[in-house]
Amino acid sequence: MPYLGSEDMVKELRRALSNPNVQSDQLRYRNTILKVIRAMSQGVDVSGLFSEIVKACATVDIVQKKLVYVFLCSYAALNPELSLLVINTLRKDCQDPNPMVRSLALRNMTNLRLSSLVEYVEQPLTAGLRDRAACVRRVAVLGWAKLHNLQPNSEIDATVVNELYSLLRDPDPVVMVNCLRALEEILKEEGGVAINKPIAHHLLNRLKECDVWGQCEVLRILERYRPQSDDELFDILSLLDTSLVSQHPPVMAATLSLFLSLCSALPAVSLSALERVRAPLLAACGSTSRELRFTALCHIQLLLRSVPGLMGAHYKRFFCGYAEPAYIKQRKMQVLVELVNDENVAMLLDELKGYCTDVNTDTAQAAISAIGRIGRSYSDQCLQILTGLLGLKQEHITSAVVQTMRDLVWVCPQCSDTVCLALEGCEENLQDTQGRQALLWLLGVYGERISSAPYVLEVFIDGVRSETSLEVKMELLTATLRLFLCRPAETQDMLGRLLHYCIEEETDMCVRDQALLYYHLLHCGIEETRKVLQGRRSDPSLGVLIGRPVEPISQWAHSFNTLEPLRQGTVTTDSSNKGSPEHVTSDPKPNSDLSDDLKPCQIETVQTASDSASLCTEYSTDALSSSAVAPLSLSLSPALSPEEFERLWLQRQSLHAEQGGEEKEDGDYLCTEECVQCPTIPHCSPQNLQAALQLVNIQTLAFTPPHTLPWRVYLYTHTHSSCSASKPPSTLILGELLYTGEPKEDCSKMVMEGSHEQLTTEGEEAAVDRLRGRESARQQSQTEDVKVTLKQQPRDDKALKGFLSVLTTVLHTLSTETT
Length: 819
Hints:
The protein is mainly alpha-helical. It has 37 helices and seven strands. Among the domains are: 361-431, no CATH class; 438-537; 633-817, TATA-Binding Protein (2-Layer Sandwich), CATH 3.30.310.10. Strands 1, 2, 3, 4, 5, 6 and 7 form a seven-stranded antiparallel β-sheet that branches. A hairpin with an 8-residue loop joins strand 5 (711-721) and strand 6. This is Beta-adaptin appendage C-terminal subdomain domain-containing protein.
């Protein structure tokens, strides 16, 4: 908004600019123009002085020219007719002996941005491309890009494009880079500048002559070029090797992006390049610029998706500094969670514990959430820290701890006993909506183990009229009904009062409808209510592996050195932004080749568990031979969440049970059971098993701790085979490895039948000795069998056999190494 008295100021400036005495004194005239520019920067409308300023551009003083051009470029759009008066002066300056004056005139001639002046600008720009001064050529090249941007629908002048292509070999590196930028703008609709082998090699050879941003521009454009041979590819990589470890982070990032683009078919070279950039990325994390540190952390997270151990030995570099801003601390904590392992877990948890009492509540809650994510693999140590934090009785800390415990017991049910003991008395320090909602969920699900659960709920019910949160009311309804199912005598009265209030007095329709639903559900009977509210749960003996599946580099290479890693900055696992675990739905990546659900159909049993191990070997041999005919590849993409896996697996299991285990064929679904002899696999560590399976693109989702019976492992993968009319291009395979440690009845029966035959034909003592040895050997063999259950959608027999062959080979290899 213009300042008060601006009209008087403009009048005074006009008198000064028109005063002959001021015009005759060069210094006073320049100072008067400077006052005009100062007033313009302060918000005063000085467009009325346009004609006076136009007269001032006819001068030999370069400083005065710059001031006048700043004014003219700002107000030219408001005075297009008067702007024509400036063109003659600018064209005259384009022929000035001083190259600085020529470049200044060209730059401001294009900055006027008036379509009516295009015909006057083209000739000076064409002459500028051939100017002997590099600074003039730089401005002329960019001037053509501005001119095209002013008239984007105009026909492209082939002569100008050819001239710009020829200037790519200009001795000045800035002119070369400006030509690339101008051609990118002019040829945007045609895909940008065309890069052939001579141009690509010329740009690579002159890369070191450019400044930092020039190198980044050249490297970005070179991503379009594809070498014609392997020798040429490795020659290019050799030229880029020094730039890969550049001390300038932008150059390093642009070079790595080019590396990943060129080596998309060479994963070993891409992994080697990621190893090379480890030191520059760590150096960027210690930069004095906060923005650079944050960007480096975001890109390190991107690299850890494919190389989880890349920064494992340097985890201390990601410890938070006291004076660092909250957004950098939170990003560092996310990286620390990715780097946790058996050797450093104690130190990382101790460091995170210190952040839990940070003065910034967001940082403290992020640290507690990070401890909870580590607790999925190291539950005992993390629960000890979380329980200790409850003793601080700080409102924001207690809220974050309760939310973290809720998320932890959802994925690790074996932690529920410790969580139930820790919850006693923590309701007094909960005031925020998310914390109370988490507490109510825990009271509803594990209320039979918490002695004070009915009394805590009664406090919430008594204050329901003053409750303002819709989410808390809905969670209170669910928790009270769940507690009623396990402790009816203590909860019946308060449940009746809550339902009466929500149905008769509550104004919110969501709460009222939920209360009516529960009311009608109770009329259907307790058992029906129990089926709805207390459905299937995860096996408490299973634990979810921390971290995400290792992704191929090609899955994120296109987003490296862009803003996408920065946009993915929110912590998706932050419990403060979500409700009850049952209400959190996974968002799997779309896959056109895979249906959203396993369709209801009968299960076909290809081979029973009583088949001998020799048949399993023949089965694997057949699979290998068939895979030689039809190539098979395994992939982890799209990723499958533990919740989605459990839903699909239990749905198939329930359908099979309802059908009474009948065996029927269906063309879109397949289930098979196999026995694999792996004596020591159940004693193998989950980390080793996961690493071995991931080498062949099989993802492990859940496992039973070693030396625990029954021992289970759940896994999945996607198969991709050569496309044909009779086979689907992609299938989803869900799998379970089961080891019970008990001999099978049919095997024992086989042994007894054999003993009878031997006793009738041979001597009693010799037969008994042989049978004892054979029986013990067979029982030992049967107890060492691991039952493999596979479920495939859609059906592809050859793909399933090939996958089973790969899985059997991995299990046998692990079993041999463990032995």
